[in-house]
Structure formats: C-alpha cells, structure tokens
Design goal:
Blueprint: E1 2-7, E2 19-23, E3 29-30, H1 31-41, H2 43-46, E4 59-63, E5 66-67, E6 73-74, E7 79-84
Parallel strand pairs: 1-7
Antiparallel strand pairs: 1-2, 3-6, 4-5, 4-7
Length: 89
C-alpha cells in the first residue's frame, strides 16, 4: 500500500518538502497504527512523537481532505495530512 503523507509545521521545516510517499506492507492500516509507525520510523523527520507516553495522539489527521477518527482504515492511494495540536500559554 502506498500513502501520501502531508506534514504541517512543526513536523516540517521551512524549505523541506511537506509531502512524502510511504510504502507499507499491509493492505490497510488505521490512523492510530499509522501514527505509531511514523513515530518510530520517522523520529528524525518529525522531531516529535505522534503518540505520547499515555498512548494518546498528539496530532489530528485528515484523510483525502476530511477529518478522520483514529480507527479509520486507510486504503492504497490515500493522502493523510498530519495536523499538530497547537498549545500555547
């Protein structure tokens, strides 16, 4: 399965490409499984884990332009946008 992963700041730095192709050896995965995979495999690229120590997602995900729940099954060719939760003080 191939997915297009679109990263938004702070997961992508200015001047770096924001879209990446990801090939997986699965027919389908959930958003939660993808977040775990990216957190491990893309640590250097992301700079921040997509799942915290409590097992909670640290970002919102959109699939093909629509918000998606963590149990959403992804299909070959889907575009997944990773949107960080914004905090401030």
């Amino acid at each position: 399965m191939k997915l297009t992963i679109k990263l938004l700041p702070p997961y992508v730095k200015k001047g770096d490409p924001d879209e990446h192709t990801l090939g997986l050896d699965a027919r389908s995965v959930t958003i939660e499984q993808l977040a775990g995979h990216l957190s491990l495999e893309w640590q250097g690229r992301l700079g921040y884990p997509l799942i915290d120590n409590s097992g909670l997602l640290t970002a919102e995900f959109m699939v093909n332009g629509s918000h998606a729940s963590t149990d959403r099954l992804l299909q070959d060719g889907d575009m997944v946008t990773v949107i960080p939760y914004i905090c401030g003080g």
